[in-house]
Design goal:
Elements lengths: L2 H12 L3 H10 L8 H12 L3 H13 L34
């Protein structure tokens, strides 16, 4: 599953866009420099997210919307189309994103 697919699934499960979750994380004091464990605990307790989905959000919360180019292109199931992640809701993502 690609990073973007994880984020889209999180939105379906929680009803919150990735950007909304990043904002909620910031209100809790989570951001760059925060270790994964407290973020994963919060996401599991409040939203029922497992480790895989949680780690995708940990990346966005701590590192922003950019991913390594090693995840872009190719033909594997884990590839993304871009090195930027769409955080504003799967239904609002432009077709050419």
């Amino acid at each position: 599953m690609s990073f973007q697919a994880y984020l889209d699934t999180i939105e379906t499960k929680t009803g919150l866009t990735p950007r909304a979750l990043v904002e909620l994380a910031a209100q809790r004091g989570f951001g760059p420099g925060t270790k994964a464990t407290p973020i994963l605990q919060w996401l599991a307790e409040d939203y029922g997210l497992g480790r895989g989905h949680g780690m995708a959000l940990v990346h966005v919360i701590t590192k922003g919307d950019r991913i390594s180019s090693k995840h872009v292109g190719g033909d594997g199931a884990h590839r993304d189309e871009s090195d930027r992640l769409w955080l504003d809701g799967k239904d609002s993502k432009p077709a050419d994103w």
